[in-house]
Amino acid sequence: MTALRQCRMPDLLRMSLCNLDILTENYDVHFYIEYMSRWPSLFTVCLNPDGDVIGYIMGKVEEDPAYLSFSDNYLPWHGHVTALTVAPQYRRLGIARLLTEAFERACDEQDAWFVDLFVRASNDRAITMYRKMGYSVYRRVVNYYSDNPTSNTAGEDALDMRKPMRRDKKRQHIRENGEDYRINPEDIYHG
Prior knowledge:
Blueprint: E1 3-6, H1 16-19, H2 29-38, E2 43-47, E3 53-62, E4 78-86, H3 95-109, E5 114-120, H4 124-132, E6 136-145, E7 156-164, E8 182-183
Parallel strand pairs: 4-5, 6-8
Antiparallel strand pairs: 1-2, 2-3, 3-4, 5-7, 6-7
């Protein structure tokens, strides 16, 4: 049996099972601490019966500054999944879905328009999983990732996937054929 709970400081030292994967981004400890302090309700861990961290999701709620509201790439108040990972031996058991659903509930409570996330274009399993959970591709960010662990090319595209939340009753923050809508990384505000 697994348990979900808010991430705590000691958990940061017990995440290695989850982070030993070429498709999982690893961050400096200060980055994790910033998320724990600024968005504690959006940093959730999954524990096995022994208390080991076997998965986690961390993210934030944010919006682009008002002066960018004229831009086609402006993002209103939304949830953003910064990292979602499950230890390899615990995958395909529904843990990623549980973590994502908890994150989406927290974003709904904060009145977000949608939840978005970036996934490597080559990560077919993750893309399929997100589609099954109701996410769709909003746009392709060309060469978003500077490395490409699955080939010899220099960089890799990211798919910006979104799922509308309760606030977006008219589904105005999703689009059809998002894979065909290409932008460059510099078109995204990184405040």
